[in-house]
Amino acid sequence: MQEYRIWECLVCGWVYDESKGAPEDGIPPGTRWEDVPSDWQCPECGVGKDDFEMIEVRAATAVEQPATEPSNQPHTAENTGPLNEPVDYQRAPIVVIGTGLAGYHFARELRKLDQRTPLILISADDGNSYSKPQLSTAFHKQRTPEQLISQNARHMAETLNAQVLTFTRATAIDTASRTLTLETGLQSQRLPYGKLVMALGSEPIEVAVGGNAAGCTFRINDLQDFQRFYTAASGAKSVLVIGGGLIGCEYANDLIQSGFEVHVVEPQPHALGNLLPPTASALVESALRDAGVRFHFGTTVESLDYCGAGITAALKNGTSIQVDRIISAIGVRPRTQLARESDIPCNRGILTDRHLATGVEHVYALGDCAEVDGHNLCYVAPLLAGARALAHTLAGTPTPVYYDNMPVHIKTTLCPVIASPPPANAVGQWHYERVDTEGVAARFTDSNGLLLGFALVGEACQQAASFSEQAPPMMQN
Question: Could you tell me the pTM of the whole model?
Answer without folding.
Answer: 0.85
